[in-house]
Amino acid sequence: MPEARLRVDEVMGEIERDVRTRLRRHLIKRGGAAEYEDEALFDAVHAVLARAVDERNLDATLLPELLDSDVDWRLKTHLELSTHRPALGRAILLAKRRVLLPLTRWLFEYSQENFRRQDRLNRVLFACIEELALENARLRRALAARADAP
Predict the structure, then answer these.
(1) What is the residue range of 111's domain?
(2) If 0-12 CB within 10 Å is exposed, 13-18 middle and 19+ buried, where does residue 28 land?
(3) For the chain, what is the radius of gyration of the CA atoms?
């Protein structure tokens, strides 16, 4: 049984390498980074970005914690109707809910999906930035250790 598992791992590894090679060639063909001609460099970049996207909780990144705590950086994808008018406010809210909201629901739903996609992209980019910062910190630490070594 271990031999069958080993063979499956080998086949999957070959398939993943083939997919990465095709992706690399596709990006080069479309005018992507010239550095992707170097397969090892492309694989290293792919590994860092894949680690950021696949292996981390997108809601647990450092950059949002460093942003101004008074400003909510997350996109709000839900609709909140409120009023600041004490007397006339209830009538205005009723009109918004019964007349305006049904008339514009299609626009709201279309926008809501776009907001969700943008929110996910923002979180992925935060994770990528953090992964690159981690990689940079590891490299700096290794260089400093190499410089301190006799």
Answers:
(1) 59-148
(2) middle
(3) 25
